[in-house]
Amino acid sequence: MENDLQRSERPESELRIDIAAAIQSLPSHYRQVLILRDVDEMTISEIAQSLELTRETVKARLHRGRALVREYIMR
Question: What dihedral angle (degrees, nearest 10) is formed by the CA atoms of 9, 14, 18, 19?
Fold first, then answer.
C-alpha cells in the first residue's frame, strides 16, 4: 500500500519519463500501435488500414501494449 502511495505522489515530470521509458521498452509491434493511437490519435480503423492488419489485431496489440506499460510503471 505504501509503495502505491509513493508512486501516486511522484512528480509529473518523473511519471512522463517513466512512461516514455516504458513505451520504448515495448516490442515494436506493440509500440507502433500504441503511438499511432495515443500520440498520433489515429482511429483503430485507420491504424488497421495503414499497417494492413485487422481491427481485432490492432485492438489486441493496443490492449497488450497498454498493459505492459502499466506493468513497467508499477515496478
Answer: 90
